[in-house]
Design brief:
Length: about 120
């Protein structure tokens, strides 16, 4: 079992930045692939970014490429999402997700564990 706790959400103006964190309860964190997803009101949960267990491979949704950066600190069992140049359309609840695996994964059904989510609101 892997428990995930997100933090770092909040209200920011367009063009601003936020850094989300997701702390995992499990040791051997480097064997766990991590992802960030988001869900806006009335919409389906969508992929944002993913990172492999070692951090050597990453993937991004086209909508955030060049603005968001996913990273991880395996010594602290934590994954981060640095979000720059935020836009109102980035407003959503952001979830981190985890699955044991050696690659990176972009589909919700590929993940076994989810955090409770953190709200990000970008005002225009």
């Amino acid at each position: 079992q892997v428990q995930l706790v997100e933090s770092g959400g909040g209200l920011v103006q367009a063009g601003g930045s936020l850094r989300l964190s997701c702390a995992a309860s499990r040791r051997a964190f480097s064997s766990i692939a991590m992802g960030w997803f988001r869900q806006a009101p009335g919409k389906e949960r969508e992929f944002v970014a993913a990172i492999s267990g070692t951090g050597g491979m990453t993937a991004y949704a086209d909508s955030v490429k060049g603005r968001f950066t996913i990273s991880r600190d395996n010594a602290k069992n934590t994954v981060f999402l640095q979000m720059n140049s935020l836009k109102p359309k980035d407003t959503a609840v952001y979830f981190c997700a985890a699955v044991y695996g050696s690659s990176w994964y972009i589909n919700t059904y590929e993940y076994d564990y989810w955090g409770q989510g953190t709200q990000v609101t970008v005002s225009s």
